[in-house]
Write a structure and sequence with these properties.
- This protein has two domains: about 80 residues, no CATH class; about 45 residues, no CATH class.
- The protein is α+β, with helices and mostly antiparallel strands and about 140 residues long.
- The strands form three sheets. The chain has a three-stranded antiparallel β-sheet with strand order 1-5-6. A three-stranded antiparallel β-sheet has the order 2-3-4, with no helix packed on it.
- It is globular, with a radius of gyration of 17 Å.
- The longest helix has 8 residues.
- About 10% of the residues lie in helices and about 25% in strands.
Length: about 140
């Protein structure tokens, strides 16, 4: 007999691969990853497909290539895997003002460049998301 099931509500961590945030994803996953991008002089060409920007994500089933625009998700067992953006956006919604164990907001403003920061649970630190800034503050 066929039965219907509903996905359990849970909060996950994810980062969207935008073609330029490889370091953020490496920090999120906690290891160095293989990245492929078009030559620098072609990066701003609007005709370059998202598949020209790839990052290799180690999953429980082996390495999987993620293209620009896909989300990298941390699963319930601490595993990582890519997810197409349309599937991700149909399945998940942003959790506004998610709290960490210290009752601090998970998203803050960088005191140096005024950009958005993100709490990285692997490093237990807030990190600036701006590519020009290296600000980081550890949370004990």
């Amino acid at each position: 007999m066929i039965k219907k099931y509903r996905k359990r509500p849970m909060v996950i961590e994810a980062v969207q691969w935008n073609g330029n945030n490889a370091i953020e994803i490496m920090l999120f996953i906690g290891k160095e990853l293989k990245v492929s991008k078009p030559p620098h002089h072609m990066e701003f060409n609007e005709n370059i497909p998202n598949t020209a920007y790839t990052i290799v994500i180690p999953t429980l089933n082996g390495d999987v290539i993620a293209s620009k625009g896909e989300y990298i998700i941390k699963g319930v067992q601490g595993e990582f895997y890519p997810c197409k953006s349309d599937i991700f956006e149909a399945t998940y919604e942003l959790v506004e003002k998610e709290k960490d164990d210290k009752n601090n907001l998970m998203i803050k403003i960088c005191p140096i460049c005024k950009s958005i920061t993100h709490y990285n649970s692997y490093f237990k630190a807030y990190m600036c998301l701006s590519s020009e800034c290296t600000w980081m503050r550890r949370v004990n």
